Amino acid sequence: MTSAQTPPKTLRPDDQGQEAFSVQKTSSEDLNPYHIAQHQFDNAVRYIPDLKAGLRDYLKLPDRVITVEFPIETHDGTVRNFVGYRVLHNRARGPGKGGIRYHPDVTVDEVRALASWMTWKCAVVDVPFGGAKGGVVCNPKELTTADVRKITRRFITALGDNIGPHTDIPAPDVNTNQGTMARIFDTYDMMHPGRNNRGVVTGKPVDMGGSFGRREATARGCLCAAQRALAQGLVEGLDSVEGATVVIQGFGNAGSIAAELFAEAGARIIGVSDSRGGIVCTEGVDPSAALEHKRKTKSVVGLAGTKQVTNEELLTIPCDILIPAALENQIRSDNVDSIRARFVVEAANGPTTPSADRILFKRGIPVLPDILA
């Protein structure tokens, strides 16, 4: 079953993707990602007083919101139904561009927000794409590889012509990878024979037409943006990542590769975390050792020579650079006063709420926003 939803006109202001977890949230502020994205937009357009109301609404609201429901037969013989979303926010600059995530907490409002942020990201770096995003409500950790493959194929079949090389181009995100993209391409290609369909996804294997460097692109962009910001004097007394102490929340594709790249650039990684907890070592955590330990044990926790901390405690570790590389709403009004970093570099989407962002600004802690980093 497929339905297109129109949002209300009055709205409140790999090889895995980002590490799929969040710290305990006790904040009373509105943590709805779409409301946050709308609030960010409303704040930004205040600086464009001549923007016409109709154009403002066009830039603010998504072009298309699609909900699909589909069944699969799982490994134990039961039939389960899943819900998926694909939001095309804006394609004024080109085809929609944005990842697909598999996570039990996926909501349509989260996907709307992520699609909005993708529009802004593409515009900031001046690439010819608009913004889009997708997600399926599922927990891959409770499913077999075969189950997840079925979900991918059924989801793409249900989306049909709502994605395509000239319309809307998916990519990897939380709990999806190049293998997922290969199956998306294969499914779409079977549905559209006789065409060159390689452009339907990015992040696919190189031997299928993927790009060299795609796997580390998110983390490398984070490093390059941080280096440029520091070189321009954004943080007093810190003009390079060389010699800086770094804490990274999230050890999926973005976080683990960021750890490697920042370490290669001369930074000292003193803390990292994943969905099971965090580890700290003031002398430095070896990213390669942490990654190998996680490969063997499914977590960085327990790495020799490190101290275990909670995800909440990890955010409070004194450091030069804090890199949230997990999910949204990790730095909020209820924990922002405990942040003791000198510089926040957002590798995740929407990790800092508007209230927390204002508090960090007042404290003199600059934030390199997700739409740039």
From TrEMBL:
The keyword Cytoplasm does not apply. One of its GO terms (biological process) is L-glutamate catabolic process. Residues 211-373 form the Glutamate/phenylalanine/leucine/valine/L-tryptophan dehydrogenase C-terminal domain. Keywords: Oxidoreductase. Residues 1-20 are annotated as: Disordered. The keyword Oxidoreductase applies. InterPro entries: Aminoacid_DH-like_N_sf, Glu/Leu/Phe/Val/Trp_DH, Glu/Leu/Phe/Val/Trp_DH_C, Glu/Leu/Phe/Val/Trp_DH_dimer, Glu/Leu/Phe/Val_DH_AS, Glu_DH, NAD(P)-bd_dom_sf. One of its GO terms (molecular function) is glutamate dehydrogenase (NAD+) activity. Belongs to the Glu/Leu/Phe/Val dehydrogenases family. This is Glutamate/phenylalanine/leucine/valine/L-tryptophan dehydrogenase C-terminal domain-containing protein. It comes from marine sediment metagenome.
